Amino acid sequence: MPNLWPAQVFYDGACPLCRRAAMRYQTHDRRLHLEFVDISQPDFNAAAYGLDSRRVQTVMHVRTADGVIHTELRAFLILWKGLPHTFLNTLIRWTFQIPGVIPLVGPFYRWFARNRYHLTGRCTAEGCPTR
User: Fold this and answer.
1) Which of 8, 27, 72, 130 has a C-alpha 20 to 30 A away from that of 53?
2) Domains of the chain from N-terminus onward
3) Coil, strand, or helix at residue 91?
4) Cα separation of 111 and 109, whole Å?
5) In contact, 122 and 128? CB cutoff 8 Å
6) How many CB atoms lie within 10 A of CB 38?
7) Residues 63 and 7: beta-carbon distance below 8 Å
8) Residues near 111 by Cβ (< 8 Å), separated by ≥ 6?
């Protein structure tokens, strides 16, 4: 069995929805399985974590204690595994482990990740943040 904990969760603190979700997850992480790293901070260095600086800005990343990096919806699966087993958490985890669900839902997640600044009102007349 791989060693997952503690896992580092890389989130975009410049995205209001992402920031609120990370804060909610932190509140529920009673076992302290998760370490949250805000990639929007000026001193964030992707290479120091073994991450690609461009890709970490585009999709969710989680690095488990064994050094494995999980991205997109698989990163969320690791995140949810680190949280207490509530009915909703268990249902979501179970659903995403059904064969074919991740490839089916993946395009919607990638669309959201690409458009998160537009969807959360972070774009101005000058454009969107260059993250």
Assistant:
1) 27
2) 7-119 (3.40.30)
3) helix
4) 5
5) yes
6) 16
7) yes
8) none
DSSP letter assigned to residue 127: B
At which residue do the structure tokens 């537009």 appear? 118
Residues 6 or more apart in contact with residue 14 via CB below 8 angstroms: 40, 117, 122, 129, 131
Residue 42, preceding peptide bond in cis (omega within 30° of 0): no
Q: Report pTM.
A: 0.87
Q: At residue 65, does pLDDT exceed 90?
A: yes
Residue 101 confidence (pLDDT) = 92
| H/E run at residue 117 | helix 101-119
Beta strands in 4-108 (DSSP E): 7-11, 34-38, 61-63, 69-71
Q: Is the pLDDT of residue 55 over 80?
A: yes
